[in-house]
Structure formats: structure tokens, C-alpha cells
Design a protein that fits this description.
By secondary structure, the protein is of the alpha/beta class. It contains 13 helices and 12 strands. It folds into 2 domains: 115 residues, Orthogonal Bundle (Chemotaxis Receptor Methyltransferase Cher, domain 1), CATH 1.10.155; 191 residues, Vaccinia Virus protein VP39 (Rossmann fold, 3-Layer(aba) Sandwich). The protein is 39% helix and 18% strand. The relative contact order is 0.12. It binds S-adenosylmethionine (SAM).
Length: 336
């Protein structure tokens, strides 16, 4: 019999109708949900399922697989989280034991298809518009004007490329796009290319759709919410207007692999390397370095110190680093 897990974009309509209520994303609530590594299991959709638990050996297999695929280092304490998040995958695959699910992941070709959904289920996608607003203020008031100045001085093209690496459901690159749009008059004659990527395909679908909950827009200045979103009070949703949605291109990409969309003047890579161990962080930083123009700027999250990489990145201020190159340590060079 052919195996077919449901879930992700291909999920049947009947199943997608049973989604949890709007609000914070289910992924982010999981840590607090009732349930655990052992005991009665209530599925994501509220149906009773067969009991299953996460043995130490199974937890090790899961950790190893997630690490191999996404570089994410799951701490020992995350067994309950793993149980809660894989609940939905087991239900989608019609399985009642974790061992059967892990065996499925090893099988070809069904397991390969399910692997992406496995990674999607275990990534943490917390994000919202205007997260760390000072980064966006720095972008439009400091960084972009300096890049423009240098490009004009060196006769480069009037094009500036910005990459939001690990962008989750798009709030980060869209915030950058809105801030640039707000300053359109100052930046007249310049082209901005904004790219958002994530390993998780289901959050990228949400990003492309541009439909958000009140949680996503809750930290956003009112003027931006009114200007760039259409609210649907009955549904409690906020639809991003096309003029901003069209400014960002989204692609699936794994930070552990080289990214092949050219070089960027600015990269946001915030709140993802906290999930990496030293080796994964090293791989990601090497790819980020390779994707920046010499002198380009990398903005990371507040918990993501890069003090160990002075050869590649020069510290500018907390969370902000500049690509370090022996030949062009003094700023943005090279015709772009
Ligand atoms: C907590 S969110 C951060 C979103 C956004 N950058 C922010 O700061 O609001 C982390 C994102 O990293 C993504 N991620 C995890 N491992 C990844 C990898 N190896 N390559 C690309 N993205 C990854 C997850 O899918 C998730 O959407």
C-alpha cells in the first residue's frame, strides 16, 4: 500500500479546517502544552490517539536526525517539546508509535518526503513585526545612507540587496520593506532587493500569503499597521498590502549549505544561531560571510555573540558585525 502523510501545503481541506484558534502560533505554545514524553496522547486536533512515549533511544535518534538536517542542537530537556510537536506528524501519518514514525523516516521514498515535515515540526518559528525595532531604525537611518554614500563614491550600481536568513513567516523582511518604503523619498533612484529564506517550507507559505494574526502585528507602530495592512476584525487577521508583499522574494534555504542567490550588502540572521551548536554556527557563519559583499553588514540576535570570529567579522556594536576582509576592511568596496 502506498504511504501518504498529510500536512503542510498539501493538507486536505477537511484537516486544515481543524486548525487551532488564531493567536500565537501553535509551535510557540507547545512548550507550555499539557502532555509529555510518556502518557496519554491527545492529538493536535483534540482527538484521542494511542498512547506513545519518547524513549531515550528514540530521543537520541530524533536529535541526531534534526542535527544532521538543520544543525539544530536539541537539549536533553526538550523531550516533552519533541513529544508535543511530533504528535501532529504521527497523526498525519496515521501512526500510533514513535518507533514506526522513525522507521518511516528511514524509508525511501516516503521517508524522504516526510523528513521535511519532521524538520518543519521541530523548528521554532517565533517572530513578529518590528522585533528589535532599533535594528530597522539603524537600517534606514545609518546603514543604508552609508552604503549609498560608498556606492556613489565608487561608481557602483544603485542597487542594495538585503537578505533575511531564517525569516520564518516573513515578518522580519517585510518590516525592512515597510521601513524602506516609508523612506522612499530619501531613497529615490535606488533599487532594493529583499530576499527571505527559511528551512521550514510551511512558514514560507505563510510568508508568501501575507496574512497575519493580531499577535504578529501587536508590537508594530499603529501608523504602519494602518498604512500597510487591511484588517479583518471578524476574522482577527491582518492582510499585508501587495505593495509591500511584492517587495520580498522567498526561497527555501538551509543555512548549513551555501546560499546561491548572489551577494548582499546587509544580512539579518537573528534568533536562529541560538539553536545551533559550535559546529553548525561555524558552518552558517562561513556561508553568511560568503554571501556578504566585502564590508557588508551582518545583524544577529542579542543572544548570538560572534566574538570568536574576529577574522571574518568585525564587531561594530552589539548584534552588528561587518564582513572582515584583509583587502577591504575599511568598508564596502567592489562594484556591485
Ligand atoms: C525563531 S525564528 C527567527 C525568525 C526571525 N529571524 C526573527 O528573529 O524574528 C528561527 C527560524 O530559523 C529557522 N531555521 C532553523 N534552522 C535553520 C537552518 N538550518 N537553515 C535555515 N533556517 C533555519 C526556523 O525554521 C525558524 O523559522
Amino acid at each position: 500500500m502506498r504511504f501518504a502523510c498529510s500536512g503542510g501545503p498539501a493538507r486536505p481541506v477537511s484537516e486544515s479546517r481543524r486548525r487551532p484558534p488564531q493567536g500565537r502560533k501553535a509551535d510557540d505554545r507547545d512548550d507550555r502544552r499539557i502532555g509529555g514524553p510518556v502518557g496519554s496522547a491527545r492529538t493536535f486536533y483534540g482527538r484521542e490517539s494511542a498512547e506513545w512515549s519518547v524513549s531515550d533511544a528514540e530521543f537520541d535518534r530524533i536529535r541526531k536526525l534534526l542535527y544532521e538536517k538543520a544543525g539544530i542542537h536539541l537539549k536533553e530537556s526538550k523531550k516533552t517539546l519533541v513529544h508535543n510537536r511530533l504528535q501532529k506528524r504521527l497523526a498525519a501519518c496515521g501512526l500510533t508509535s514513535l518507533r514506526a514514525y522513525l522507521d518511516l523516516l528511514n524509508r525511501d521514498p516516503e521517508g524522504r518526503a516526510e523528513l521535511a515535515a519532521f524538520v518543519d515540526a521541530l523548528t521554532t518559528n517565533e517572530t513578529f513585526f518590528f522585533r528589535h525595532p532599533e535594528h530597522f531604525e539603524f537600517l534606514v537611518n545609518d546603514l543604508i545612507p552609508r552604503i549609498m554614500e560608498r556606492k556613489l563614491a565608487s561608481g557602483s550600481t544603485r542597487r542594495i540587496r538585503i537578505w533575511s536568513a531564517a525569516c520564518s513567516s516573513g515578518e522580519e523582511p517585510y518590516t525592512a520593506a515597510m521601513c524602506l518604503h516609508q523612506n522612499a523619498e530619501r531613497f529615490r533612484g535606488w533599487t532594493f532587493e529583499i530576499v527571505g529564506t527559511d528551512i521550514n517550507r510551511s512558514v514560507l507559505e505563510k510568508a508568501k500569503a501575507g496574512l497575519y494574526t493580531s499577535y504578529a502585528v501587536s508590537k508594530m507602530p499603529d501608523a504602519f499597521r494602518r498604512r500597510y495592512f487591511t484588517a479583518d476584525p471578524a476574522a482577527g487577521t491582518f492582510r499585508l498590502k501587495d505593495e509591500i508583499r511584492e517587495q520580498v522574494r522567498f526561497h527555501a534555504a538551509n543555512l548549513l549549505q551555501p546560499f546561491s542567490f548572489g551577494k548582499f550588502e546587509v544580512i539579518f540572521c537573528r534568533n536562529v544561531m541560538i539553536y545551533f551548536d559550535a559546529a553548525s554556527k561555524e558552518a552558517a557563519l562561513s556561508h553568511l560571510h560568503g554571501s556578504l559583499f566585502p564590508g557588508g553588514t551582518l545583524i544577529v540576535g542579542y543572544a548570538e555573540s560572534m566574538l570568536n570570529h574576529p577574522d571574518r567579522f568585525r564587531y561594530i556594536m552589539p548584534t552588528v558585525y561587518q564582513r572582515e576582509d584583509a583587502a577591504s576592511a575599511d568598508g564596502i568596496r567592489g562594484k556591485t
